Amino acid sequence: MDFIGIILFISYFLNFVFIVFILFFEQTDSARRFSWLIAITFIPIGGIVLYMFFSGNFLLRYKRLEKSIRHTDEIFSAFERQLDADADSLIEKNDPYFNRHMPLLKLNKNYARSSLGFSGTVHVFTSGEETYKSLFAEIEKAKVSIYLSYFIIRNDKTGKKLISILARKAREGVDVRLLYDHIGSFFTSGALFIPLKKAGGEVHKFFPVTIIAPYALNYRNHRKIVVIDHSTGYFGGINIGDEYANCSPKQRFLWRDTHIRVTNSAAVLLEKSFLSDWYSSKYKTKQEIKPEPPGSNPCGLRTENIPLPPVSCTAVPMQIVTSGPNDIKNDEIRDALIFMISTAKKSVHIETPYFTPDPAFFSILKIAALSGLDVKIIVPRDWDKFYVKLAAMPYISELTKNGIKFYHYKGFIHSKMFVIDGEISTIGSTNIDTRSFSLHFELNAFFYSKEFGKISEEIFIRDLENSIPADPDAFRKTPVLKKALCNFFRLFAPLM
Question: Which of 95, 169, 319, 424 is disulfide-compatible with 174, CB 3.0–4.6 A?
Fold first, then answer.
């Protein structure tokens, strides 16, 4: 056998081994398994490489993740026991609204281990411009600590301004910790963070990809968290970059997003999520983690001269729910979203930048529409990824036939928001795709407030007014070659 023959034999053998593994040992759903079988069959060796990098079965940092989660649980255990006691007293009041949504609260508590927190005030930002004004002003006023975690930090005007402020606060003695995702910020030069490091701030990459650990490529931290002085928190869909504030010279479309500011125990629960990620990135498996007392608030809330948006709500109970590939058999946020839809009585209103739902999510949307609910979904008109748009078109076409009304926002809507019956909502970082549901580290807040549900519904209606109804026959009218391309990309939707 010549050299080429040996290579071919090894290729076919490896392909056979991986096909057998996927058929008999892969534990994910049939759609994803089928997609991988196609990839490995038609792309010899290359399909295997893709599978090893992107399947979600090669997370090699379980021990470090589990240790960091265990330590943060220990640190916050007394704090959460008090929250649980407060929740029990709230439940005993027998409020009709709370009783109606009690099953969702219990699901998140039992499944995602999420305690019910409380925010004295919730402010809603609907643009990067107003988010940065408030966030940067509040960071300027920090006295004790600033913790930040972002998927993307650009080396542009916005990114440089943030680092400049953080460096100044670090020189003042404020405890500054910045965590950023290695792949999300892959094209951001490390030089951006040098002033902060020199000033005494700490900067770490989340799951850095190296030759030794290339499989980390697939497991990205998509959460966006800021916690200031243990008392104020920010989260949602907005990263750090000029495009989020619609001021990038390369801007191709209007960027519309949603971000949230919370206070009190809700901010402390955000801090718990941050520290869990921080420890997993900073410490080696065998290192000890220094405990930190949660919930200390030595300087109170300082809102004077901070440009907060007029859209706000007071006294909001809420749960911070996280999910990630460290718990591969559970999709906590996805399942909570599915449960929310299943309990709807009148309406399901959704904003999402990407739409390639898995079979379970597709089915619950279809069932909701066929049962007579008002199901409306806003997606972008101007998508930032052409292949995701093509993959989404068949899903949109099929669900439109079943009564779901889709709308295209005039620009790129990056908001991730669900509003059920106009009275309960969730906002966070989770997209409607398999990558968000199962492979990314995500965070969503579930708000148990009729007033906040109304505010969320008003935001949705406002976005609806700036959207164009989707043509129900758009996919049918699509040229044959483009339709074929859509169906091709749909095959790989579970991998996107």
Answer: 169
